[in-house]
Amino acid sequence: MINTKNPPRDTLIPGAIFVVIYAAWAILVSSSSQFIHSFDNAVISMVCNTNPANVAFAKTFTNLGNTNVITIETIILFIILIVFKQYAYAFFTVGVMICANGYNWIIKHAVQRHRPLVHHLVYADGYSFPSGHSVGSAALFGVLIILTILLVKSKFWKTLLIIIWALFPILIGYTRIFVHVHYPSDVFGGWIEGITFFLLGYSFLYHFYIEPKMMEHKRK
Predict the structure, then answer these.
(1) Interatomic CA distance for residues 120 and 110, integer angstroms
(2) Dihedral through CA 191, CA 196, CA 198, CA 200, nearest 10?
(3) Which has the closest alpha carbon to 15: 206, 197, 208, 210?
(4) Cα angle vertex 9, ends 26, 19, to 5°?
(5) For the residues 126-132, what does the mean pLDDT come to?
(6) What are the Cα distances from residue 47, in Å, to 40, 111, 178, 198?
(7) Nearest Cα residue to 121 out of 71, 43, 47
(8) First vs last Cα of the chain: how many Å apart?
């Protein structure tokens, strides 16, 4: 069931554009480009500080982007959608998250970028690029934005929820830089990757579920 009169249009072209942007960014990072070093240093100088309140917030909020937390949130969302018989949206959600996180694992091991050689404020292991927290949060909350547009009828609640969902990956990415476990370019790359997968995933959903349903409704 499509609970909106005007669903977002096909996102294949924006998704393809993000693929190109992500590929270019990954090449710059893997080649240790001077641009990336300058970018990282500039952002770090703006973001990082030793304010106790900021440190406490970053160390706590960053946990919302942990793989286990994102996985649990995805499972809960999947179950809710299944209970309300939104099967296409449920499998869209799971598909996007599996593809985004699986691809992220591949890229991490292909690039093999080491984490910042400074004291980490929280525990982190594995390779640095791209930020898994940023990939997972951008993909999940991107999916939530799409689902909110499709399923929420109230304009007020739709707008409010979209703002909230958009803030989460931004804040999670910020904390990963703040606690010194990722370079800003890792976080930016993670955001691009997560956005790419939910755009391509929605394009698939649009062509194989939403568009056919809209044509069916028009024929009635």
Answers:
(1) 23
(2) 180
(3) 197
(4) 10
(5) 92
(6) 10, 25, 6, 27
(7) 47
(8) 15
146-157 pLDDT, tens digit each: 999 999 988 899
Residue with tokens 């939530």: 144
- The first and second tokens of residue 168, run together, are 């989460």
- Using alpha carbons only, give the angle 67, 197, 74 rounded to the nearest 5 degrees: 40
pLDDT at 4 over 70: no
Read off the amino acid at residue 205.
Answer: L
Q: Are 78 and 90 spatial neighbours (Cβ–Cβ below 8 Å)?
A: yes
The DSSP annotation for 91-152 comes to: HHHHHHHHHHHHHHHHHHHHH-PPPPSS--SS---S--SS-HHHHHHHHHHHHHHHHHHHH-
Quote the CA–CA distance of 132 and 9 in Å, as a whole number: 28
What is the distance between the alpha carbons of residues 144 and 151, in angstroms, rounded to a whole number? 10
How far apart, in Å, are the Cα atoms of 16 and each of 10, 20, 141, 200? Answer: 12, 7, 20, 8
Residue 83 C-alpha from the chain's centroid: 25
Structure tokens at 94: 């799971």
Residue 148, C-beta contacts closer than 8 angstroms, at least 6 positions apart: 158, 161, 162, 165
Q: Maximum Cα–Cα distance for the chain, whole Å?
A: 64
When pLDDT is cut at 50, 70 and 90, the band that residue 8 belongs to is confident
Q: CA distances (Å), 96 to each of 63, 69, 93, 111, 139, in order? A: 21, 16, 5, 22, 7
